[in-house]
Design brief:
Strand content: under 5%
Number of strands: 0
Helix content: over 70%
Radius of gyration: 24 Å
Number of domains: 1
Distance between the termini: 58 Å
Order of helices and strands: HHHHHHHHHHH
Length: 314
């Protein structure tokens, strides 16, 4: 009974910690900038310092946490999501209304024209606008997410402690991307379990843990934690991380469109990066680790050994 109480409390604590980013965001920039003014960076040449300080505007030295978060909202919500909404709720209904005026409500000609015109316009819009903007936003978002994570980490922890070598750094990043992709596929696979409530619950647990990993990975990476340590920590303290990832997992599952779901994720994720950086995970409440990452780690190891090692031997 005490163990179950501890699990529920850890989940609730994770859920509450995940929401802190929205509050911390508004005073973090101010405190970072005040700290920078109190401790200006030292330079070797004082004459050069004066000349460069006179050339550089003050805003270049300020924190970019709030700025990058607003940019994520503007790109993914104000441009991407709004353009899809305008096309589907404005352009298409207007064209259909024009056809109705031209051919009448019950005209077979108008219905036939609309039957091929709507798919053609949707395909053209998706190919020319949605797909390129989706790919561009993924690249830009990753850069902005890194800016937010680095500024938040320096604010709370100080200087990042990265992995010891460039080769380890690259290998860890590639292996991490592969494990996350496989884990996402595993989550989609378990959602197909014949019993709908069980499948949906298992898929939700996978997404909660995956989003928690996304949010905390920036912090742990700056702390110098390798991937196996990050995954072991999540598996051993799964109640907290399920609670932490729950809000983002639920909100991204509400839209029916994968693209809209990606927009929701990109708008909210900066807040979860900040929350993960500020959080102090609850540990030791469960004696049984949830080994959900173990199957994909085994698969990733096999793929890595077959692709990377033969290439290095050549």
């Amino acid at each position: 009974m005490d163990n179950m109480t501890g699990i529920v409390r850890a989940m609730c604590r994770g859920f509450m910690d995940s929401l802190k980013g929205a509050l911390v965001l508004f005073y973090m920039d101010k405190q970072i900038n005040e700290r920078a003014l109190r401790n200006p960076p030292l330079r070797r040449d004082s004459g050069l310092q004066k000349r460069e300080s006179s050339k550089q505007p003050k805003h270049q030295q300020e924190s970019k946490v709030l700025k990058r978060t607003i940019q994520c909202c503007a790109l993914n919500g104000g441009v991407f999501w709004a353009s899809i909404f305008i096309f589907e709720c404005g352009v298409l209904p207007s064209l259909k209304y024009l056809l109705t005026i031209m051919f009448g409500d019950s005209s077979g000609m108008g219905i036939m024209i609309w039957s091929w015109m709507k798919p053609f316009l949707s395909l053209t819009f998706g190919t020319i606008w949605v797909l390129p903007l989706f790919l561009l936003s993924r690249i830009v978002n990753s850069l902005w997410f890194q800016d937010i994570a680095d500024s938040a980490y320096r604010y709370r922890q100080g200087r990042p402690h990265l992995l010891s070598s460039v080769s380890k750094l690259v290998a860890d990043m590639l292996f991490s991307v592969l494990v996350q992709a496989l884990f996402l596929g595993q989550g989609m696979l378990v959602s197909r379990v014949p019993l709908p409530p069980v499948g949906d619950l298992l898929a939700l647990v996978h997404m909660c843990l995956l989003y928690a990993l996304y949010a905390f990975e920036y912090k742990w990476f700056n702390m110098g934690w390798e991937l196996h340590r990050r995954l072991t920590f999540i598996e051993g303290n799964w109640p907290y991380f399920i609670g932490f990832g729950l809000p983002l997992a639920v909100l991204t599952q509400l839209p029916n469109s994968y693209v809209i779901s990606g927009c929701v994720f990109s708008i909210l994720f900066p807040l979860f990066i900040i929350s993960g950086n500020e959080a102090d995970p609850v540990t030791g409440v469960c004696d049984y680790p949830l080994k959900l990452f173990s199957p994909v780690i085994a698969i990733a190891n096999t793929l890595f050994n077959k692709t990377i090692r033969p290439a290095t031997r050549r």
